Amino acid sequence: MTEQDRTTVRESTTEPVYDPEPVAAPAAAPPPAYAGARVRTTETSVRRGPSGGEVIRRFVMLLFGILQGLLILRIILLLLIANPGNDVVALILGITDPFVEPFRGMFALDRVTADSGSRLDIAAIVALIGWTLVEALVIALLSLGARRGEDATA
Known about the structure:
Layout: E1 3-13, E2 17-18, E3 33-34, E4 38-48, H1 52-79, H2 87-100, E5 111-113, E6 119-121, H3 122-143
Antiparallel strand pairs: 1-4, 2-3, 5-6
Helix pairs in contact: 1-2, 1-3
């Protein structure tokens, strides 16, 4: 998407270095001394933003992450005997119902209920696992066309 150029320039000066044991030189030549040298290093790097495919993969992961979070909230709310008359509880249960419904009836046991009214929604747990597998499949399909180095989304 966006490209950013960054140039770093480093400049340093080395101190004079004298040879501790000069090699025999003609009498007219002074001992070898290397005057301070200036070293200038320039590095240019280009930072590119995420590609279109990477943005789509991130968006898909965000959507599935929200769904997974809501399914976990549903499981916890039903375990803690949340009041279905509460607006927040009703909203979470209402949003997650369509995602849990395809997994109802998959097993003979859909929910486990305790005497206190608490219930473990087995269908919601299976839905959480199922939608996580669907997410992995979608991400893998989207990663097929990614260029080398772009598919590090984990």
